[in-house]
Structures are given as structure tokens and as C-alpha cells.
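re the bet — no i am not wrong, look at it urself. input seq straight from the record:
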Amino acid sequence: MAQEGKGDGEGVAASEELMVNAQYVKDLSFENPRSPQSLLQPKGQPEVELGVDVKARNLAADTFEVILTIKVTTKAAGEVLFLVELAYGAVVTVKKASEPRLRELVLVEVPRFIFPFARAVIADATRDGGFPPLLINPIDFSELLRRNEAGTGEAPVA
């Protein structure tokens, strides 16, 4: 799948090529440590802790594996209701991109593209675990990259 952008600084510029070769669940874990009590005795509005990370590694000249990791811990009255951790991957090919744009395409545009699929996996896992589906709000991957670069001085591209 090739994507073409508007050339306005968002998405993929018309001269650049971004192809998603594959998408997959690399790792999925769902824990419901207090079941069945957590399902029978709701204890008010749960607190949701969300952690998001994006990593990428070079597989070949223009090919990268991008892993979007989402960790969610949900608690009510100080007790864990459920934990879900997903590593959702994509193998992509990027052509005709400068080095700065390559980082942005791999660490911002690819996660933005695969996020709805990862979100659906998490929603299904929480629903299948006996809870209402957890629908995670959209994530600003540009801001996530800026924070990572500010915190470590580098972005996680291998």
C-alpha cells in the first residue's frame, strides 16, 4: 500500500513513498487478576493508566519494523481490575525520503497509521475479558517523538 501526501508538512509528501508491507500483533497480554470478583462487584469509576512507546529498527536498505507498544493498567478503589499490554508491529518500506523526514515517517506517520488497528485489538481484548471495550483516544505521535528526543537526545530508530 503506497501512501501519497499533500506536501503540506503533514502526512507523506508526493515524492516520498511509504508502503505498509505487513501489520501484526507481535505480543498481546491481558490479565484479569481479581476475576470473577472484579466483574461481579464494580467499585466505582476506574482509573486508567496509559503508556505508549514507539520503536523502529532497520531490516533492509529501505525497510523498517515499527513496533507500537501500548500498556494499560486499570484500577478501581486501589485494586487492579485489568492489565493489557500490546506490541503491534508493521513492516514498512520508505523511499525517496531525506534523513530527517525518514525519522518522522517511521516514528510518527507509521504509528499514526497503525494506531486504529492496535486500538481495536485492545478494545476487543478488554471486551473479551469481561469489561466494556477500552477505547483509547487518538495519540499525538509527533509530540511523543518530541518528548522522547528531549528526554534522551535521540529518537528510538535503530
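see?? The chain has one domain: 14-152. told u. also The radius of gyration is 18 Å. so pay up
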